[in-house]
Specification:
- There is one protein chain.
- The chain is α+β, with helices and mostly antiparallel strands.
- The chain has two domains: about 300 residues, 3-Layer(aba) Sandwich (Rossmann fold), CATH 3.40.50; about 80 residues, no CATH class.
- It is about 30% helix and about 25% strand.
- It is built from eleven helices and 18 strands.
- A seven-stranded antiparallel sheet has the order 2-1-6-7-8-9-10.
- α7 crosses α9.
- The longest helix has 19 residues.
- It is globular, with a radius of gyration of 23 Å.
- It starts with a strand and ends in a 19-residue tail after the last helix.
Length: about 400
């Protein structure tokens, strides 16, 4: 489960911004919207979090930061001859050449981990890993590059492997623009260090950044399996889209949607690109969401409401709050412009976040709990009135007849 994500100096983000899924002490919907993590030193976590804010405030950059971290962990060892495609905050002189930092705090297989790194386009400046086996922190990895001395220092704990010869081999083989964690598959850490492999797997497989076009293609394979196809059809029936079946066109490997013709009730096949964007997105999400719930994964979605009706968005969120469906405590984090979901009957106060631009046009992320709202407060109305910030500023547009 995801506990916290931190990012510094990435695109519109300048100072460190923190997204926390730690629940506060309020009792509302504690059983449905939160879950216990099994550690006495940690409070409960929320099962979902929503982020509101105006266009260009940085909501998408927060999700992109998580996506960048995941992709870099997964692929940096495979792209060792390339520069690091990281974009720092460009509106401050001090940030242009400073490293961008990313950190995840999460629970995997009953252990709490804290993993992060700092990178420039040229190299990895820092990489660190802490574990909390008994509540107290243990440093398992520390890598630091000093630009003044141009020397790199390392610490690899024997908790990862008690073979010092392996430590030296791993360090020597890790290039400056490659993460140590990314070397998992190359050095078969699955055999030599199962703990490191478990961390790699959580970041690259359990954490999911949703990409509609890619996920729609994945449905082609899943629609061949009766269970997944049945799940997709349940979603489509809930959405009342008049789709009676989905077929896979074998030669072109594309999806086709079956409708009834109104006057004759004959079946009509429509290709995916003939359906609405909302239909395609819902199909992409359908078995995907159920897979998250079944496996207890963490799903990140940017602009969740894009092309989806608010009732459908609410339905999808409530699946994560459904204790009979979400038995493995899957989590959903999403951004949206749709304030209709800002509803105290759907979200607890500790599940709501806002993004706005502050000084130097930098992104600021902050929780609703900063405003100490009352129980059952009219969240949507107060948000639209500007009480919580994170609204677009609309200037006056004048036409003087001069073009």
């Amino acid at each position: 489960m995801l506990i916290e994500f931190n990012v510094t100096n990435f695109r519109s983000i300048y100072n460190t911004q923190t997204l926390s899924l730690v629940a506060d002490s309020e009792e509302e919907r504690v059983d449905s919207n939160t879950c216990s993590v099994g550690f006495s030193d940690l409070p409960r976590l929320v099962k979902s979090a929503v982020i509101y804010g105006p266009n260009a405030a940085g909501k998408s950059h927060l999700i992109r930061a998580i996506g960048f971290m995941q992709e870099f962990v997964k692929n940096s060892a495979n792209n060792s001859d390339e520069s690091i495609d990281v974009k720092p905050f460009m509106l401050h002189e001090n940030s242009k050449n400073a490293p961008s930092e990313f950190e995840l705090i999460f629970i995997q297989e009953g252990m709490r981990y804290q993993y992060g790194f700092a990178v420039t386009p040229k190299r990895v400046m820092q990489e660190w890993l802490f574990a909390y086996p008994n509540g107290s922190g243990e440093q398992w990895l520390e890598r630091f590059y000093d630009p003044q001395t141009q020397q790199e220092s390392w610490f690899v704990s024997d908790k990862l492997s008690n073979r010092m010869d392996l430590h030296e081999l791993w360090k020597a083989a890790t290039k400056p623009n490659v993460l140590f964690l990314s070397m998992v598959e190359i050095f078969h850490f699955q055999e030599q260090s199962k703990k490191l492999a478990a961390i790699f797997d959580w970041i690259t497989q359990t954490l999911i950044v949703f990409k509609p076009q890619r996920e729609l293609l994945s449905q082609i394979k899943q629609c061949k399996e009766p269970l997944y196809k049945s799940t997709i059809m349940k979603f489509l029936r809930v959405a009342d889209l008049n789709i009676i079946d989905i077929q896979v066109e074998t030669k072109s490997k594309t999806l086709q949607f079956v409708h009834y013709q109104n006057d004759t009730h004959d079946k009509v096949l429509l290709a995916a690109d003939e359906e609405s964007e909302g239909t395609r997105k819902l199909v992409a999400l359908a078995s995907f969401v159920m897979d998250m719930l079944t496996k207890g994964y963490v799903l990140m979605v940017d602009e969740f409401d894009n092309s989806l009706h608010p009732i459908i968005v609410r339905f999808l969120v409530e699946l994560f709050h459904n204790t009979s469906l979400n038995k493995k405590n899957a989590q959903l984090v999403f951004t949206t412009h749709d304030s209709s979901t800002l509803d105290s009957t759907l979200f607890r106060r500790d599940q709501v976040w806002f993004v706005q631009k502050v000084q130097e046009q930098a992104t600021q992320l902050y929780p609703l709990t900063d405003f100490q709202p009352r129980p059952h407060e009219a969240l949507q109305r107060y948000y639209l009135e500007g009480r919580y910030g994170a609204l677009p500023f609309i200037g006056e547009l004048k036409f003087d007849g001069n073009g």
